[in-house]
Fold this protein.
Amino acid sequence: MNVAIPFTKLELKAYPMIQKIEVGMRGVANDNCDYKGLIGTVSELRYGQQKETENDCILEVVMDFEEPLHGSLEDLYPVLNGTGIGGVVLDEESVGIFFEDNVAQTLDGKIVCPTCHLLLDYVSEVQEDDIHWNLENGVWMKTNGEGSSNGKRCPYCDARIDDDNAILDY
Ligand SMILES: [Zn+2]
């Protein structure tokens, strides 16, 4: 836990995960900024007097992003206009952190969809029961099969959210 930063009660209420963010954690930019989808490492956290931008934010999260795995930065992020992706300053609204292994969460706890990078405050899954009736000796007997599921899904892009049940527990 990051006890060095004296977040206020209001800040902690609005962003319950903000105390958990630490330098060295992996993160992803979400749909609130031009860097959305880029993954990297938190290299610095700046709060209060330490903030260096004019942004009206609580926390400056400095990210060292990595080149996209598929495709070139120039093709995928023309909006960045060739600016660097190291030392990018994001705010508490624009970053998702991989507190758990697979799925990033914003500092207020929303899941960052790994495909569309929108922020999710709900995820849905449709499960179907698989019920059979078998005629045995003149009597219809009901059995329940294993059923099926379409998986946890992003409500916006329908991509699967594979969190290993670490966040969305059953
Ligand atoms: Zn999505």
Q: What stands out?
A: The chain has two helices and eleven strands. The mean pLDDT is 94. The pocket of zinc ion is lined by residues 113, 115-116, 118, 154, 156-157, 159 (CB under 6 Å). The radius of gyration is 21 Å.
